[in-house]
Amino acid sequence: MGQLFAVEISYRGVFQKNLAKNICRGIVLAAHNEGRPGISFGRYSDSPERNGIPAKSFAIVASDDETLEIGMAQYMPKQVDVTVVLDDTLCKGLEPWAWAGLQPVNQTLKPGKTLIVVSTEPAATLLKMIHKKDAPYKLGILKGLASFSGMWNYKDDHTDMRVLGAIAKALPEMFKLESLEKYITEKLKNPAKVQSALMAYQRLAVTDVKAGEGNQEKPFSFVQPGASQMREGVSIEAAPLGGPYNNAGGYKSGRPDKLMKFSSRTLRPVVD
């Protein structure tokens, strides 16, 4: 088996969907310039996306076609070489709509590899939110505000190019800066975007994070019942039968004790 690289992009569903997609596409096309095959995709459990809910996209690149096929057999990479966080508030942890519990933002990052965060905050502030990891890793900060480029519009502020430049700096084994420049020049035909990628490559600030350093809280989780513990179906208790029909107002049902008012209404779950 040859060499396999994986990158995950953590983003806000809908609002940063196109931004994440363009970054993953750029990773694959830049790697193609070095003769490496690759593929990009979104996490199935995040689709359809919800506004603002954490979601992930991935890009995997291999040294040869056979290795790529092996990597594609695992739909979602269990370990990645680079994790990119497009909104620094996600450093508190990810809880996608289809995920039970809180997932640390660095959970799948390989030891010694790089977590890249788009943020204006210093490393010390971000580490107060990022959960501790049992192995050392690198924290790269790409200075800037969260860019919201979603499904219906695209804010072309070069955040995608800047992130690609940071990835080239953090993982040159996957693709070099020259290959990224070639992709931007030939496919996007925009010299300004080449400069944005180059500046991000030069300015990426990297901090070494020790094992056990960071947020010491244990991420919350839920115990999901097995088939033998689950009740049949999901339901709201039925309203009790009311009194008999009368000429004054007709039949009136009883009032369920779990409803606030009006016996014809049902409970609506409220999520904090």
Low-confidence segments, given as residue ranges, are: 260-268
What is the global morphology?
globular
What is the strand content? 15-25%
Helix content: 10-25%
Number of helices: 6
The CA-CA distance between the termini, in Å, is 47 Å
Number of strands: 7
Structural class label: alpha/beta
The radius of gyration is: 24 Å
Order of helices and strands: EHEEHEEHEHHHE
Strand order of the largest sheet: 2-3-1-4-5-6-7
Mean pLDDT, nearest integer?
87
Largest sheet: 7 strands, mixed
In brief, what are we looking at here?
25% of the residues lie in helices and 19% in strands.
Q: Would you mind describing this structure in some detail?
A:
Residues 260-268 have low confidence and may be disordered. A 7-stranded mixed β-sheet has the order 2-3-1-4-5-6-7. The chain is of the alpha/beta class. It starts with a strand and ends in a 63-residue tail after the last strand. 25% of the residues lie in helices and 19% in strands.
Ordered list of secondary-structure elements with their pairings:
Elements: E1 4-12, H1 17-32, E2 38-42, E3 54-62, H2 65-73, E4 80-85, E5 109-119, H3 123-127, E6 137-143, H4 159-170, H5 177-188, H6 191-203, E7 205-209
Parallel strand pairs: 1-4, 4-5, 5-6
Antiparallel strand pairs: 1-3, 2-3, 6-7
Helix pairs in contact: 1-4, 1-5, 4-6, 5-6
Keywords:
single chain; 272 residues; alpha/beta; 6 helices
